[in-house]
Amino acid sequence: MTDRIKQFQELLGDQADVAFFPMSSDLQYLTGVPRDVPNYGHNIHPGDWLEGAWITPNHAPVLPLPRMTAEFGGLNKLENIDIRVLGDWDEPADMLKKILDGFDLPDNPRVAISDFTRGETISNLQPILPNATFISATDLLRPMRMIKSQTDIDEMKEAGRITEAAFADTLKNLKLGMTELEVVQEVNYQLRKHGSLGQSFTTSLYNSGPNHPLKFGERMETWKRKLDPPVSILFDFGAIYKGWCYDFGRTVFFGEPTDEAVNVYNLVMESQAAGVAALKSGSATTTDADAAARKVIEDGGYGEEFRHRLGHGIGMDVHEPPFLTKGDETLLEEGMLFTIEPSITQFNTFSARVEDVVVALPDGGEKLTNGWQELIVIS
Question: Positive or negative CA dihedral for 171, 173, 179, 185?
Answer without folding.
Answer: negative
